[in-house]
Each structure stands twice: as structure tokens, then as C-alpha cells.
TrEMBL record:
Gene Ontology cellular-component annotations: mitochondrial outer membrane
Protein name (Swiss-Prot/TrEMBL): Serine/threonine-protein phosphatase PGAM5, mitochondrial
InterPro entries: His_Pase_superF_clade-1, His_PPase_superfam, Mito_Ser/Thr_phosphatase
Domain of life where this protein originates: Eukaryota
Pfam families: His_Phos_1
Organism of provenance: Pygoscelis papua (Gentoo penguin)
Reactions mediated catalytically: O-phospho-L-threonyl-[protein] + H2O = L-threonyl-[protein] + phosphate; O-phospho-L-seryl-[protein] + H2O = L-seryl-[protein] + phosphate
Family designation: Belongs to the phosphoglycerate mutase family. BPG-dependent PGAM subfamily.
EC number(s) recorded for this UniProt protein: 3.1.3.16
Biological-process GO terms, alphabetical: positive regulation of mitochondrial fission; programmed cell death
Species lineage: Eukaryota, Metazoa, Chordata, Craniata, Vertebrata
Length: 226
């Protein structure tokens, strides 16, 4: 519902001429700016933690977050905001990254929490969540996609640069949806901890993937996927 034509009441007539001023009204509804979306996977965390609060970053995970923060800062971009999952590992990753981006506001959301977005095709033997998870998590993660991944608002005048710190399943699903690929293929991609995925959304709604899971800025001995 962001295509300009869908935002116009075609039955509404111009009072003076009785004719639709469709072209001018379309221009008023068209996006002008490009959105740059940087999707960051959280750093390595303690897999033995039973509850979310116990799944804190490992010492290596904290190093990874520092490296990711340094990389983002080195791009010389003025970031608009950091939106992050409310899970502990994503929150801690955000806190470390944000030290390298002073003044950038942070927003926490439950929508970006990890989960099972959609049953993968082909299925895999090593990961089989309960079927109910796909209904609960899938609806939430789809809501996250619709809420955050879209063309710029028509009122936005300048290009924007936003960081989203979340989880591998969420990022892989979002990439498939954004590129209009079958979302069931999300599990065919692999993302390293602290990796950077860069999506570009043009004013016409066209989406391009600049980088997927980039960790080339990390030394080889710092790279993990767990």
C-alpha cells in the first residue's frame, strides 16, 4: 500500500474543472529519497544459557561487536537510527556498536526477536521446531518485514541510513521477502556473527542487495557462525 496510485482516491474530482489532476496528485505521493538498510547479525553468545537473560555475549562476541562498530563508523555515513531486537544478545551487540556511532538513537523492538519465520523448503533434519512456532513467529517476523522494509515516505526529503541489529533467521527471511524470492528458501543462506547485510530501497520501491553477511573486515580467527 505504498505504490502512489494506491494512495489516491480516483473518484475525487477537482472542484473547479471537474477533472482529475492525477499527475500532480501522483507526484505528491511519490517517494523522493532512498533508504539504506543495514542488517546486523548479533555477535557470538553463550549457547548454554537457559533463559534469554543468560545468553550473553562471549568475550569473542564482544570483540566481534567492536569490529562491526568500527566498520560501520569507518563508512563515514551519518546513520539515522539503530533499531534492535529486544533479546539480550542483540541488545548487548547494539550497546557495543553504538559506542562507535555516538549520538545515533537506539530503539528496541520485540518484532525483531529470533524465531522460526516459515517452514524451510527443502526441509532440514537438524532443525525441526514445533509447527506452532511457524504460526507464532512467522506472523511476527512478517510484521517486522512489513513495518520496517519499505520505500521511503513521500515526506522524506533526504536519503536515510538505518541499522537493524537482530538475528540470522530474521535477516535471511527479510532478504528473501525484500528481493521477492520464495521465502521458503531462507535457510539456504548462512550468516556470520556480527555480519553486515546492506539493502537499498529506491523511491520506486525497487530493492537491491549490496552485501550479504559481510565479515571481510574481521580477522579470520574472529569469524564464527554460532
Amino acid at each position: 500500500r505504498r505504490e502512489p496510485l494506491s494512495l489516491i482516491n480516483l473518484k475525487k474530482k477537482n472542484e473547479e474543472t471537474g477533472e482529475e489532476e492525477l499527475a500532480s496528485r501522483l507526484d505528491h505521493c511519490k517517494a523522493k529519497a532512498t533508504r539504506h538498510i543495514f542488517l546486523i547479525r548479533h555477535s557470538q553468545y553463550n549457547l548454554d544459557g537457559r533463559a534469554d537473560k543468560d545468553r550473553t555475549l562471549t568475550p569473542l562476541g564482544r570483540e566481534q561487536a567492536e569490529l562491526t562498530g568500527q566498520r560501520l563508523a569507518s563508512l563515514g555515513i551519518k546513520f539515522d537510527q539503530i533499531i534492535h531486537s529486544s533479546m539480550t544478545r542483540a541488545t548487548e551487540t547494539t550497546e557495543i556498536i553504538s559506542k562507535h556511532l555516538p549520538g545515533v538513537k537506539k530503539i528496541s523492538t520485540d518484532l525483531l526477536r529470533e524465531g522460526a519465520p516459515i517452514e524451510p523448503d527443502p526441509p532440514v533434519s537438524h532443525w525441526k521446531p514445533e509447527a506452532v512456532q511457524y504460526y507464532e513467529d512467522g506472523a511476527r517476523i512478517e510484521a517486522a518485514f512489513r513495518n520496517f522494509i519499505h520505500r521511503a515516505d513521500a515526506k522524506q526529503e533526504e536519503d536515510s541510513y538505518e541499522i537493524f541489529v537482530c538475528h540470522a533467521n530474521v535477516i535471511r527471511y527479510i532478504v528473501c521477502r525484500a528481493l521477492q524470492f520464495p521465502p521458503e528458501g531462507w535457510l539456504r543462506m548462512s550468516l556470520n556473527n556480527g555480519s553486515i547485510t546492506h539493502l537499498v530501497i529506491r523511491p520506486n520501491g525497487r530493492v537491491a542487495l549490496r552485501t550479504l553477511g559481510d565479515t571481510g573486515f574481521m580477522p579470520p580467527d574472529k569469524i564464527t557462525r554460532t
